[in-house]
Amino acid sequence: MVAGDIVLTGLMAVLLVGIAALLTRIENWRSYTPLAGGGTATGETVVHREKPAGIIRWLTTVDHKDIGLLYGLYAIIAFAVGGIMAFLIRVQLVTPAGAILSNNAYNSILTSHGITMLFLFGTPIIAAFANYFIPLLIGADDMAFPRINAIAFWVLPPAALLIWAGFFLAPVTDNMIEPARTAWTMYTPLSVEQTNPGVDLMLLGLHLSGVGATMGAINFIATIFTERDGDVDWANLDIFSWTMLTQSALILFAFPLLGSALVMLLMDRNLQTTFFAVEGGGPLLWQHLFWFFGHPEVYILVLPPMGLVSLILPKFSGRKLFGFKFVVYSTLAIGVLSFGVWAHHMFSTGMDPRLRASFMAVSLAIAIPSAVKTFNWITTMWNGRLRLTTPMLFCIGFVSNFIIGGVTGVFLAAVPVDLILHDTYYVVGHFHYIVMGAIGFAAFAGIYYWFPVFTGRMYQRTLGKAHFWLSMVGTNLTFFAMLALGYLGMPRRYATYQFDGAIAPLVQVTTFHQLATVGAVILLVGQLIFVWNIVQSWLEGPKVEDGDPWNLERDGMLDREFEWFDEQLEADEHERDPSLLADGGQDEQTDS
Amino acid sequence: MAEAEEPGLSDQYPTASPWPLFVALGLTLSEIGVFIGLFPVAVFGLILFGGSVAGILTESGYAERPWPTLLGVGAVLTVLAAALALWQIPLADIALSNVGEGPLLTRLVAVAVAGLVMAAMGSVASLLEQTAA
Description:
heterodimer, A: mainly alpha, Cytochrome C Oxidase, Chain A, 20 helices, B: mainly alpha, 5 helices, Cyt_c_oxase-like_su1_sf (chain A), metal ion binding (chain A), transmembrane helix (chain A), electron transport (chain A), metal-binding (chain A)
């Protein structure tokens, strides 16, 4: 133990000295001394370019566009990891006895799949769009706090490593540290009693990702309030910024609570506190705290994608968003209501029936603003001049899947129905229609719609459409089968399902599990095409020459981000043709 | 130390700063160290965190020099650790010989050590700079 501590001390010392040495090499600390009249100490610095070259650029950037791209890359990697985990889960369930995984491995993968998709893909992919495009949409130079923006991103890679730590450490520590098997909800007493240190690492990772999300949210609120261009007021603020503003407010109230609850859980595990012990606050306290965060988290994840769809869908309908004001109001309404519904996750815990009824009422009430949005999207398309581009297809897919996911949610909000369907695959089907069918689809719509802006190239349209149709068919096959499995009484989270045929119709259950797995295979093929399309088009796709690749000007719908893109294209042209410098073009010898 | 004439990264490029990465790394190591109870990781993580916070505040112009911030972060951590120890641990058990015994004491000592090191670094550097000027 002592030897281990000495090694660790040495390692840490070397790391710290290394960092200090690196910093003195690349950074001039003395120049920080403020000079009279402001400016930098080395006022005669010659800036050749905006950014340093190579890897240093990405490690040190505080530019919102670069950070947006980093978030995007991170989210796509997490999506791949979470997706492979999902695929393993589906393969396992092809046969009632389980096809490939041990029960422990299944539980680990199930836990990690949920946490990866929600915290490492969902939240970061939204941050990717918001970082890149909110400053462009509102005419800001950058985020309000560019450095905090960078910190908020850089806590995420260690958070992911901590969350997945058990998978890496189990083989090298002889299974002393294993991946957590708590499910993503980390219900007590299970999560307190698992002595595995992998659970502590996962909790710390989650805590870090929450710190990052909170820093990001503060930044978005400050940016949208204070950094808008003079002619962007509250009346003409775009819909994506509205949803980001609401989402950031939700994060501000929800994530610190998750952080506190996680610290309480860590202390129960390591310092013998009794927050969630029977003799202390009781195990149900965890559920209340977790879902007070967890339900707003659902809207944290879905509001910005709704904003993306509200922004993109009108562009290919040739009509302005129908009832813009009411879409904004419904966003705000969902934001407020989302904090009053958490106990609908706990209807079957034996809580007071009067409380249950009030939570049911508020949960049902959320259907109203959600339906306002849905009808407004449909009405926007009504009699419109629809152009079925890939982003538009994903938007329509979003609306379609959101209706199924939403209506199944209305059923679950009703106490009597919930008591039957609670903890069955119906719940899994319901929320996957939202998280994959809606949130995932909106993310794809955003990636395709803005692909020309952030790459300067165009994606391959046929592959884009193949990606859409495979995703649409795969999603509906997989998750509709889950709804049916729920009606058949199949409990969620099980690694095997060798029931007695007299209790449950095993043959039908097996069939629907196999259908869901076929859907998962189709989804996997679709996502491989997506990754291929994005990577190849980024490297070799045709360069976009026109600042209006979607021909939006015709309908008067060219937003600021494409105007900015057009300016970039023109600036690039000047740079390529030095003769244009004569008329006051780009001068490379400008100061910062 | 770098040559004064040589411009640093953040002087050269308006959209680059070396600090955020290390603030995040410092925070991560501090959390792992303190919560998992790895003494050296906690101490070095907190020093990296406090140092990077001092650095980033100075770079972005919120502080004139980094040393007072370092001294401040160190003092706050030390006071916090001492207060928690006095509140939660019986006075008789607070002894250096007990480090490594109780889960709370060991962690608080790690925080206090990091705090004291930072406070010492901050004050020595401050003094050196003032006497040099």
